[in-house]
Design a protein that fits this description.
alpha+beta, Jelly Rolls, Arc Repressor Mutant, subunit A, 2 domains, six-stranded antiparallel sheet, 9 helices, 9 strands
Length: 273
């Protein structure tokens, strides 16, 4: 079990269980609760509804809303569990706010895979110091999770939100960037991939995530670079593997985002003898 409880009102936990766990006790939380179940069966209820879900699914409980969840994990149970204060995302989700009511939706394996791309790095940040860039990275990852999930929930409810299409497109763009970060991505090449103009791409990205496409790409590449440096790859190797065409430019961007040079970071990450 892994728990991260930080000062930004974001808690994340990943849980795996194989024993039967039935906990129907009614309870509530002072923050919003998001469950993303990779595998399992559950009966979930509140004052208005009782539903049964199995396989992969997601559930949102608004803050201070009494609910219960009885989990049958006899066939295995894996879930992500997040508590967060939605107010910290007000600048990132202006056009696609969270639903105010209880929501539950089945997830396809493709939808789950997209969410996992954001959940895993968010969990990895749990032991990081509370630095400004880490705070923003955590908020951004949470916003990406929710912006991916909201259109799925609204579609299942038959409620087409005006900005759902735009948020869905931004989620697809983020997924594309995550898969092709090691390639020479440009604003024009990404816009052409999704048959939209560069100006529309920039506006949609910033209005949904409050960050530019360039900043998102650079932040993602530096995160990947840190992992490679920790594994002992040279600066030249990391430059190529992370989509930077020039080592000097890579060093400049790395220092601006991470606060130290790649060489110092790699030395800090070396295991002690």
């Amino acid at each position: 079990m892994n728990i991260w409880n930080c000062k930004q009102d974001i808690n994340i936990q990943y849980l795996r269980r194989t024993d039967v766990s039935l906990s129907p006790k009614r309870h509530s939380h002072p923050l919003e609760e998001l469950l993303i179940v990779e595998q399992g069966r559950a009966v979930i209820g509140n004052e208005d509804r009782i539903i049964q879900l199995d396989g992969s699914f997601a559930v949102i409980h608004p803050r201070e809303t009494a609910h219960y969840q009885a989990n049958d994990v006899s066939d295995g149970y894996r879930r992500w569990y997040l508590h967060f204060d939605s107010q910290i995302l007000s600048d990132l989700m202006v056009n696609d706010p969270l639903p105010l009511q209880f929501s539950a939706v089945k997830l396809t394996q493709e939808q789950l895979a997209v969410l996992q791309q954001f959940l895993h790095p968010l969990l990895q940040l749990r032991f990081r110091n509370i630095e400004p860039e880490d705070v923003h990275a955590r908020k951004l990852l949470l916003a990406l999770i929710l912006n991916t999930l909201m259109p799925i929930i609204r579609e299942s409810q038959g409620d087409a939100h005006p900005s759902a299409a735009g948020s869905s497109t931004v989620g697809e763009i983020c997924n594309y960037i995550n898969k092709h970060y090691d390639e020479p991505l440009t604003l024009e090449s990404i816009a052409n991939q999704f048959y939209i103009s560069r100006s529309k791409l920039s506006r949609s990205f910033r209005s949904t995530l409050n960050v530019s496409v360039k900043t998102y790409i650079q932040t993602l590449r530096i995160d990947k670079a840190k992992k490679l440096l920790a594994r002992g790859f040279s600066i030249e190797e990391v430059t190529g593997k992370c989509g930077f065409g020039d080592s000097r430019y890579f060093i400049k961007v790395f220092h601006r985002i991470a606060g130290i040079t790649p060489a110092k970071y790699r030395k800090m990450a070396e295991p002690e003898d």
